[in-house]
Design brief:
The protein is α+β, with helices and mostly antiparallel strands and 257 residues long. The protein is 55% helix and 7% strand. The protein contains eleven helices and four strands, in the order βαβαββααααααααα. The protein binds glutathione (GSH).
């Protein structure tokens, strides 16, 4: 049996970026299978054989098919050699999982709603209306169908967008507080919580310049820059194909004065 690792992913960003970065940190070479989310590749029959939910990412390791980005990261950390991305101490492990649950269930969907309303929707909206309608009908999960419909036809309500913006504000304050107490999000070592957090937050200084900046959130800024400087992060962000990936450049340190 082959132990080959194949990762089905989109851009280094959010859910796709999590296992990409975790694998790179572990030093695992993987076959990259890029799916163009804006071309609805994730809903095509070949991919649905791998992940019938039609969402990205998914990973194949040998004969095992793995889905769910955070669960894939935990699998990768346990299955492969390389630096541990989960701390030993039970309280620290709890903190890693606490942050990942918070980000996946509460904060991430808000980032996603804003991203889909300002980037994903506008990127596809001008295409042939009939093709778009058919593409939406092919989406397997009803909740993803709703997200696509809202993004394409600009149907996110002002109320839900305001709630997402509120959550992003709360999340930024919580990250800043946590990072003022320790060097990394969940323990004194780089962990899956940081990988998860970076994928959500790397573009904050661009997207939320009034809330995330050197004056108001110096700990977040230093944390993001430190992660950006890691060789694994550089490598994974060089795999991006859309202009979205260039946003990470905001984390370049300026010339010393
Ligand atoms: N809980 C899943 C969510 C996966 C997910 O929704 N991924 C998004 C991209 S970040 C996706 O595939 N969207 C495309 C679609 O809904 O068609 C995970 O963490 O893997």
């Amino acid at each position: 049996m082959s132990d080959k690792v194949t990762l089905f992913h989109w851009e280094p960003n959010a859910n796709s970026g999590k296992p990409m970065l975790a694998l790179a940190e572990k030093g695992v070479d993987f076959d990259s299978h890029y799916l163009d989310l804006l071309n609805f590749d994730q809903h095509k029959p070949d991919y649905l054989k791998i992940n019938p939910q039609g969402t990205i990412p998914a990973m194949i390791h040998g004969d095992k098919v793995l889905t769910e980005s955070t669960a894939i990261m935990e699998y990768a950390d346990a299955a492969f050699d390389g630096p541990a991305l989960m701390p030993e101490d039970p309280r620290d492990r709890w903190r890693v999982r606490w942050w990942m649950k918070f980000m996946d269930q509460w904060l991430g969907p808000s980032f996603s709603m804003i991203g889909w309303s300002i980037f994903v929707g506008p990127s596809v909206r001008a295409r042939d209306p009939k093709e778009l309608k058919e593409a939406i009908e092919r989406i397997p999960l009803p909740e993803r169908r709703t997200a696509w419909r809202k993004a394409i036809y600009n149907l996110f309500s002002e109320e839900e967008l305001a709630e997402s913006r509120r959550r992003i504000g709360v999340g930024i304050a919580m990250l800043e507080e946590a990072l003022s107490k320790r060097a990394w999000l969940a323990s004194d070592r780089y962990s899956l919580a940081d990988v998860n957090g970076f994928n959500l937050a790397y573009a904050l200084p661009l997207s939320q310049p009034d809330l995330a900046n050197d004056e108001k959130t110096p700990h977040i800024m230093e944390w993001l820059r430190k992660i950006y400087e890691r060789p694994a992060t550089r490598h994974i962000w060089s795999m991006g194909r859309t202009p979205m990936v260039a946003r990470v450049k905001i984390l370049e340190r300026g010339e010393p004065a």
